[in-house]
């Protein structure tokens, strides 16, 4: 009898412990987005969409290593275990796919699924073509010319020209389940409510504009990334004060981008502020059209030397990394520029005088700025700070303030477009996570606006050669070296007014444990637990 | 009465048409591209043009209007550019939430406003009158989003009694009257009620004060009528104007609560409208504004008819 009781007790303890091992609470996240990001595969809502609805429910062939807070993220195998370019034909890539992976609906993942997903965003005539997903994914893989499944677990992609940045491009493309789409009557609107990916989280409940609830996918292929939480709930809370109040009153456990002035109150109440360097910058993109004052390197360097970036820190509650270049100082592609981006007013004035300016001859520039916007930090006070700083070296700044969506249109239009009304600078923040988004797209002469995002119409043969080398250097180590050289040129030529980098601040309840903030726009939520 | 109702109803049609034209045209004036929200920021010019054509935004405005109004006539309000969901589904879901909030605020505001206004009007030029007047001016003057934030700090953050955001647990959107749902309603409804309390109180005070000095009131007293019966006559004379003010206030409560719904993350039409503006989501913006504008028109109709029912003099004029 005693043995029976002991046995029952032991079972009860084991059951409790097992339950404790799996039951690690619910994480409620207050997002900055106004709606739940698109759930069908390719997400909208920018980096936040990919962070919370992309790499949670879905996987890509190649992913980012999000396990370390101490070093920049690098590419790692995802649904592809390895990839290589043909030694003879540098446009032909082979991807070996991971075996044994299943979608949430139980369907196996194969090369045919990759082809189906690429058709979903690239082939308008295909049955599964989805304009909404195409709008988010198509421009992310400009190199792709064609693709085919060699066998169930081998995929071939042919690029338009040799392009060694293809692996980075493939991190954008998320794999939805064909079987699930068919089960949902081939209707993407129905799929939105019942999506199926191969990711570590399954979307369980979805109420548009209100919440999305995810639960762990216990059959996830990477056992180290099976979520420990019971549930993760995403709640759109676009208003910063509403986000802060929700966290402080215990309605959510985690908020993105707390307003800087609420941070001391949060810290005083025991809430944790998590931040880290990540690939983001806050710059003035400069016009290089004929007649632009920024064509004089002395003026560009002087402007970069005139800003006391350390002095700007209190404005942002300390949540910034002062710029030392276009990329953050911690970037693997930072290199060793010879021009030091720092505060040196005397040197700045000397350069301006050398360029022919002084107390009696001011330089007038016009800058496009927005009062808010994704990643723009606190654009009005920060720009006023820059305006004051430049005034010290006789640069008089006139602002043209436009609403964020209009700002995006003016950025796309380029410096020569009449809509920018002669502005020679645009304050824009950039996602700079990979070689293309980080460096190439801003200054490639083939991407001069409106055909691309070279807003300032910059054109330089030496830079073009560097971009060509990035695309034709297939050895990752050698490619990193070219990227470093490219960034050194960015800085040495002072091609932007480089001001600061955001640190992706997020505030969370002290109950949230196990989060490692990677130096990346995306994060791993699988390691998180909640102390109930 | 019936003919008055139909005459009044006929007048609604040109107003509704005018409203639809204004709704459609106003949102076109704002700068910016409605497709910005759904295109990657670095979409090429070709991709932008293709998207514009896919959404019919490359057509001349009169053609776009004709298509829009034609679809509306068939009950199709189009699809949101930002979410791809039907506008009707988005708008009516949000309007239902706003209506719940507006009715709750009205239930708080109107009795309090009427009571305070009547009290001040009856005891005109006394300390009580001055206190009510000061209170109602404060109610009208205090920015209600600020008041909302203060209430959140006190009752949600510091005391932890009431939630600061959302319409209910688990994303619930229905009109459920259990405590779990009602606790979400209290702070936004109280905040929203403050302005109409002030407006109704001031209106009723002025009406009651004026009517009490009229000759017929003295005549009623002279006939020996009790104070209660006289006040009933006063109330009836004040009712039609008060009703008109309250009807418009209900319209304001439904459509004018963008800031309150933003502060409390209340998934109503104001919140939807602010998101639609922010995202330049033209179909959603047009649909939301149209529904809210038509609600105002409907409220005016209801108020006019109700006034006529209460006060027969209105029909004759």
Can you describe this structure?
The complex is a heterodimer of chains A (532) and B (317). By secondary structure, chain A is an alpha+beta fold. Helix content of chain A is 31%, strand content 20%. Chain A contains 17 helices and 21 strands. Chain A has a seven-stranded mixed beta sheet. In chain A, strands 14-18-13-17-15-16 form a six-stranded mixed beta sheet. In chain A, strands 4-5-7-6 form a four-stranded antiparallel beta sheet, with helices on one face. In chain A, helix 10 (297-305) runs antiparallel to helix 12 (345-354) and helix 16 packs antiparallel against helix 17 (476-492). The longest helix of chain A has 21 residues, at 2-22. Chain A starts with a helix and ends with a strand. The relative contact order of chain A is 0.15. Mean pLDDT of chain A is 92; it is low at 4-21. Chain B has 317 residues and is mostly helical. Chain B is 75% helix and 0% strand. Chain B has helices at 2-29, 45-54, 61-73, 87-122, 127-141, 144-158, 179-212, 215-222, 227-255, 258-263, 269-279, 282-310, 312-316. In chain B, helix 4 (87-122) crosses helix 11 (269-279), helix 4 (87-122) runs parallel beside helix 12 and helix 9 packs antiparallel against helix 12. Chain B is globular and about 85 Å long. The chains are: A alpha+beta (532), B mainly alpha (317). The interface between A and B is large, with 45 and 46 residues.
> So what's the overall shape of chain B?
globular
Secondary structure tally: strands of chain B: 0
**What do the pLDDT scores of chain A average to?**
92
Strand order of the largest sheet of chain A: 8-9-10-1-11-19-12
Query: Kindly state the mean pLDDT of chain B as a whole number?
Result: 83
From the N-terminal CA to the C-terminal CA of chain A, the straight-line distance is 36 Å
- Count of separate DSSP helical elements of chain B: 13
| Strand and helix order of chain B | HHHHHHHHHHHHH
Multimeric organization: heterodimer
Low-confidence stretches of chain A: 4-21
């Amino acid at each position: 009898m005693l043995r029976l009781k002991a046995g029952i007790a032991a079972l009860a303890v084991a059951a409790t412990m097992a339950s404790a091992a799996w039951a690690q609470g619910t994480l409620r996240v207050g997002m900055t987005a106004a709606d739940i990001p698109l759930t069908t595969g390719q997400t909208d809502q920018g980096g936040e969409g990919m962070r919370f609805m992309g790499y949670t429910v879905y996987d890509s062939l190649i992913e980012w290593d999000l396990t370390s807070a101490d070093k920049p993220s690098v590419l790692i195998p995802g649904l592809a275990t390895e990839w290589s370019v043909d030694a003879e034909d540098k446009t032909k890539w082979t991807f070996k796919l991971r075996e044994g992976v299943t979608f949430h609906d139980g369907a196996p993942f194969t090369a045919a699924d990759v082809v189906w997903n690429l058709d979903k965003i690239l082939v308008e005539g295909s049955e599964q073509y989805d304009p909404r997903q195409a709008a988010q994914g198509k421009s992310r893989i400009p190199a792709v010319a064609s693709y085919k499944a060699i066998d169930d677990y081998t995929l071939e992609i042919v690029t338009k020209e040799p392009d060694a940045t293809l692996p980075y491009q493939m991190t954008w493309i998320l794999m939805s389940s064909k079987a699930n789409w068919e089960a949902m009557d081939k209707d993407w609107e129905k799929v939105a409510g019942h999506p199926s990916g191969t990711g570590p989280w399954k979307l369980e409940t979805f109420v548009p504009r209100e919440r999305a609830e995810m639960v762990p996918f216990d059959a996830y292929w990477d056992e180290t990334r099976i979520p420990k939480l019971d549930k993760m709930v995403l709640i759109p809370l676009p208003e910063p004060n509403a986000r802060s109040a929700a966290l402080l009153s215990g309605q959510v456990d985690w908020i993105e981008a707390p307003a800087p002035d609420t941070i001391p109150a949060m810290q005083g109440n025991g809430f944790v502020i998590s931040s880290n360097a990540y690939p983001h910058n806050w710059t003035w993109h400069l016009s290089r059209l004929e007649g632009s004052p920024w064509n004089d390197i002395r003026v560009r360097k002087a402007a970069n030397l005139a800003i006391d970036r350390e002095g700007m820190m209190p404005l942002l509650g300390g949540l910034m990394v002062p710029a030392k270049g276009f990329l953050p100082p911690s970037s693997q592609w930072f290199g060793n520029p010879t021009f030091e981006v720092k505060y040196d007013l005397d040197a700045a004035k000397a350069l301006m005088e050398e360029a022919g300016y002084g107390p009696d001859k001011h330089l007038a520039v016009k800058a496009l700025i927005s009062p808010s916007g994704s990643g723009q930090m606190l654009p009005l006070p920060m720009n006023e700070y820059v305006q004051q700083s430049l005034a010290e070296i006789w640069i008089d700044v006139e602002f043209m303030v436009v609403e964020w969506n209009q700002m995006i249109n003016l950025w796309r239009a380029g410096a020569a477009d009449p809509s920018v009304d002669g502005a020679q600078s645009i304050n824009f923040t950039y996602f700079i996570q990979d070689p293309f988004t980080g460096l190439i797209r801003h200054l490639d002469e083939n991407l001069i606006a409106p055909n691309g995002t070279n807003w300032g119409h910059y054109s330089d043969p030496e830079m073009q050669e560097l971009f060509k080398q990035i695309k034709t250097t297939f050895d990752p180590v050698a490619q990193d070296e070219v990227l470093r050289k490219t960034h050194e040129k960015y800085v040495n030529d002072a091609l932007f007014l480089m001001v600061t980098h955001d640190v992706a601040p997020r505030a969370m309840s002290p109950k949230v444990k196990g989060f490692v903030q990677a130096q990346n726009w995306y994060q791993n939520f699988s390691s998180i637990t909640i102390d109930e | 009465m019936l003919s008055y109702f139909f005459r009044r109803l006929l007048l609604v049609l040109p107003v509704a048409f005018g409203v639809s034209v204004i709704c459609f045209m106003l949102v076109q004036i704002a700068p910016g591209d409605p497709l910005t929200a759904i295109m990657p920021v670095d979409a090429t010019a070709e991709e932008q043009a293709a998207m514009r054509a896919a959404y019919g935004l490359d057509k001349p405005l009169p053609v776009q209007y004709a298509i829009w109004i034609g679809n509306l006539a068939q009950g199709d309000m189009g699809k949101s550019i930002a979410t791809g969901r039907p506008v009707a589904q988005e708008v009516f879901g949000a309007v239902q939430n706003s209506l719940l909030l507006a009715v709750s605020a009205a239930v708080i505001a109107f009795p309090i406003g009427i009571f305070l206004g009547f009290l001040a009007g009856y005891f005109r030029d006394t300390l009580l009158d001055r206190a009510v007047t000061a209170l109602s001016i404060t109610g009208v003057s205090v920015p209600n989003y600020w008041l909302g934030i203060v209430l959140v700090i006190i009752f949600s953050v510091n005391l932890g009694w009431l939630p600061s955001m959302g319409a209910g647990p688990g994303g619930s959107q229905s009109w459920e009257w259990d405590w779990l749902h009602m606790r979400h309603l209290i702070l936004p409804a109280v905040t929203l009620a403050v302005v109409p309390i002030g407006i109704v109180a001031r209106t009723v005070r002025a009406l009651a004060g004026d009517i009490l000095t009229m000759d017929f009131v003295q005549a009623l007293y002279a006939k020996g009528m009790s104070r209660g019966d006289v006040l009933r006559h006063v109330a009836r004379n004040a009712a039609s104007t008060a009703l008109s003010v309250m009807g418009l206030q209900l319209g304001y409560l439904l459509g004018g609560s963008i800031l309150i719904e933003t502060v409390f993350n209340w998934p109503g039409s104001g919140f939807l409208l602010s998101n639609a503006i922010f995202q330049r989501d033209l179909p959603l913006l047009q649909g939301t504004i149209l529904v809210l504008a038509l609600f105002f028109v409907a409220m005016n109709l209801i108020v006019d008819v109700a006034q006529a029912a209460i006060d027969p003099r209105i029909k004759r004029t």
